């Protein structure tokens, strides 16, 4: 339907150029205004996706991220700046601060948390789409399980070096991530940001596609969603679209038979080596909330301590230990989970 000469309501006037695009139109823009999206991870991909959907007028964005802003993030995480680094802000909080300045009409809900099988249920409440901004397959497999369980569309994306890929999953009609990758790659079997590096333009490319796929879903235009695994190599100037028809019938995939081991906690990793950093995240699922003030006082004689409302951080003996209110910790200075646990026990306790 032509959008020419159609009166645009005042609350949508800022999106007039987007409304003029026939694929969206006034009806689609109103659907965006009424929509809810969950963005898991506010790092490189997630921060670009969050900004794009904020500018596009998605009415409610739920941001979930486990980490804080660091200097080496700024090369590719374009929403953040050195002021965020200096304040040691969690990425979800720093992102929300910026996004409020871009579009105050979008409702932003922030969670400084590690998405896991225990809390994922609360984060998917009432959302119309889930968008992947993560950096690890364990979390993606959890998203895949929970999206299939609840028939929520989700968009997968990943980047490494100058390559990236993305897939739109529309349960129960399309192949899912486990149809494509039955198992996460084993430790050491694939490159990481530490070994292969990453360049900023591939982030912008994959995030742009993820964002537009989300817009298609949220405007009710699922028939326009890509049926391919899309793979880009910007350095070698190659683009591939891989059809997944050969994966049919999809019931060969365990998750299409009601097998959801990631969502049920049967496969729930406790520790994670963080991509692109000499650091390990430690999870303590049954931990009580941490008193950041008490930990700051305990650490004061040991080294440099920084605290804000979301975390407390100690620099000592070549390590940086960051503890969040939910009990999680990130130990920088090692990629060995055993060593990280030992450092945590030494400075925080068992």
3D structure, described in words:
- The protein has 350 residues and is of the alpha/beta class.
- It has two domains: 35-264, Rossmann fold (3-Layer(aba) Sandwich), CATH 3.40.50.720; 271-347, TATA-Binding Protein.
- It has 13 helices and 14 strands.
- An eight-stranded mixed sheet has the order 3-2-1-4-5-6-7-8, sandwiched between helices. It has a six-stranded antiparallel sheet with strand order 9-10-14-13-12-11, covered by helices on one side.
- It is globular and about 70 Å long.
- The mean pLDDT is 90.
CATH class of the largest domain: Alpha Beta
**Cα shape:** globular
Predict the CATH topology of the largest domain: Rossmann fold
Which CATH architecture of the largest domain would you pick?
3-Layer(aba) Sandwich
| Termini gap | 63 Å
Determine the strand fraction and express it as a percent band: 15-25%
Q: What's the order of the H and E elements?
A: HHEHEHHEHEHEEHHHEEHEEHEEEEH
Cross-sheet strand order for the largest sheet: 3-2-1-4-5-6-7-8
